[in-house]
Design goal:
Blueprint (H helix, E strand, L loop, with lengths): L3 H9 L6 H13 L8 H15 L3 E5 L5 H9 L5 E6 L2 H12 L7 E5 L2 H6 L7 E6 L6 H8 L3 E10 L13 H15 L3 E6 L5 E6 L6
Parallel strand pairs: 1-2, 1-4, 2-3, 4-5
Antiparallel strand pairs: 5-7, 6-7
Helix pairs in contact: 3-4
The protein binds S-adenosylmethionine.
The site of S-adenosylmethionine (SAM) has 19 residues, from helix 4 and strand 2.
Length: 215
């Protein structure tokens, strides 16, 4: 949605992550179907910046794929930080784990294999996260949001990816298009949070849980 030249300019003036991240990106582009699912260095740097700015220690990710976004966030976590990443497909988790093993930050990450809604339902009621990244099947975005919000600490942030869905939110036709539109409306109407939608890559919404309910 943003002109390619402008995207390239932004990236040239952005602090990007490790060499291993570049290798993982190349590997994914060469060996995986749908490599465009990976968030890439610009959005990766945004997530890392948000993790550092928020001082997050406990992160939850929904949608590991080959582990790129998880590694971006893990690199920004403090030594004792922890990241749980949910992934449905064993073949994706296998690649991610191979790269996590090679990173000094990989020990912060645990992959939970299976449908993310089941993983979320199995979390203890006391589980708390400072930062959540939602980036899996669009049809479940509202369900993920509902399942995750009780576990987000007040002041904590959810980043939701693909909220512009290549612009299809303006003229939704397919089920996934309508699911993204529904998610965006749901969040915007929720008095428990405040939200800003950014036109970065395919659209990222930053959703902060309020400390107090709005009067
Ligand atoms: C867009 S990709 C994630 C990209 C990743 N965040 C990155 O930037 O590297 C979405 C991932 O969610 C996974 N996924 C889809 N449905 C899922 C579900 N119900 N539960 C858990 N993971 C799911 C897919 O297999 C895929 O690996």
């Amino acid at each position: 949605m943003i002109p390619k030249r402008i995207e390239k300019y932004c990236l040239r003036h952005t602090s990007v992550g490790s060499k291993l991240l570049r290798e993982l990106e190349k590997y994914t582009r060469r060996h995986c179907d749908d490599p465009q699912m990976l968030i890439g260095p610009h959005e990766g740097a945004l997530l890392a910046m948000l993790v550092r700015l928020s001082g997050a220690r406990r992160i939850l990710e929904i949608g590991t794929f080959t582990g790129y976004s998880a590694l971006c966030m893990a690199e920004a976590l403090p030594k004792n930080g922890k990241l749980i990443s949910c992934e449905l497909k064993p073949e994706h988790a296998k690649i991610a784990r191979t790269f996590f093993k090679r990173s000094p930050h990989g020990n912060k990450i645990r992959i939970r294999l299976g449908p993310a809604l089941e993983t979320l339902a199995a979390l203890p009621a006391s589980a708390r996260f400072d930062f959540v990244f939602i980036d899996a099947d669009k049809e479940n975005y509202v369900n993920y949001y509902k399942a995750v919000l009780p576990h987000l600490r007040p002041g904590g942030v959810i980043a939701a990816d693909n909220v512009l869905w290549s612009g299809r939110v303006l003229a939704p036709k397919k089920k996934a298009d309508r699911a993204v539109v529904k998610f965006n409306k749901h969040v915007h109407r929720d008095p428990r949070v405040e939200c800003v939608m950014l036109p970065v890559r395919d659209g990222v919404s930053l959703i902060r849980k309020r400390l107090h309910r709005r009067a």
